[in-house]
Amino acid sequence: MSYNLGSPSPIEPLSLGNVITAGIRIYRSHLKDYFLLALKAYVWLLVPIYGWAKFYALSALISRLTFAELVNQPESISSGQRFVNSRLWQFLINMLLMLLLGMGILISVVIVFAIFGVLSAVLVGGLNQQANTGVYLILGLLAFVVGILALIAVLWITTRFYLVEVPLAIEDNVDGTSTISRSWELTKGYVWRIILISFVAFLITLPIQIVVQIISTIVQLIFTPLLEQNSGLFRLLFAVIILALSFASGAVVLPFWQAIKAVIYYDLRSRREGLGLKLRDYEI
Question: What is the rounded distance in angstroms from the CA atom of residue 61 to the CA atom of residue 41?
Fold first, then answer.
């Protein structure tokens, strides 16, 4: 089933409502197929390194299939899977690079707070007995401002990498490294809009996460008396149930997020590069 957005202007991006609506409609139209793909991806997480790359590739495949619907060129799952599998190691490279980038961002934040902490300690130490409540209040206020600015900076930077896996699953001449700059290019000027869309999408998926948490709590309450018996069988059964519940809930939510990513990607490319977008001709 294809879903056509019609002919939106290449100058004006889709509204927030249109992005969410398009993502939901395609997600609902292909719920079974996308759920099974996502579930398969989560199972691959149990296999170190290679399985993680498979998870990343299958997640991106959902975005590829969604994009194919948006450009009115529906693609079979088998065809799309052959394509992402051909770039499997590029997905692994990209995943490792993003991990390093994430670590770099985290270290940078820690350094900023460490410097602020040292300067604050030096300031308070220099004042000795003259330090009063007002000084501590000002330092606390500065710490709050620095924290907010750091959060905004991290949010802005991570949003610039929001689409990294999508071009790798769709475009020609893109590899595990260049797809990072491609995401940076596409998201330029649209960071806060993407954040707003993501926040609305989070609110939509929140009830599912609440239900899963309730079910997990119930399961834990049921198994607590049994686990106190130190039975290996009950512990194994409990772990399997929790893992299966986590995988199943993740398989419900992941396709929705990947569909939203695909719509955002379609929207940004429509605005920046005009209409007439086409999926790579790869045995469609």
Answer: 10
Q: Residues near 68 by Cβ (< 8 Å), separated by ≥ 6?
A: 74, 75, 80, 279, 284
Token representation of residue 66: 């969604």
User: Which tokens belong to 9?
Assistant: 């202007």
Which pTM value belongs to this model? Answer: 0.84
| pLDDT at residue 75 is higher than 90 | yes
> Is there a contact between 113 and 151 (Cβ–Cβ < 8 Å)?
no
Whether 77 and 33 have beta carbons less than 8 Å apart is answered as: yes
What stretches of the chain adopt beta strand conformation (E)? Answer: none
Rounded Cα gap, residues 95 and 93, in angstroms: 5
Closest of 272, 86, 251 to residue 188, by C-alpha: 272
123 Cβ contact list (under 8 Å, min separation 6): 135, 139
pLDDT of 18 above 60: yes
Express each pLDDT in 119-149 by its tens digit. Answer: 777 776 655 555 566 667 777 788 888 889 9
Dig out the tokens for 78 from the structure: 């088998």
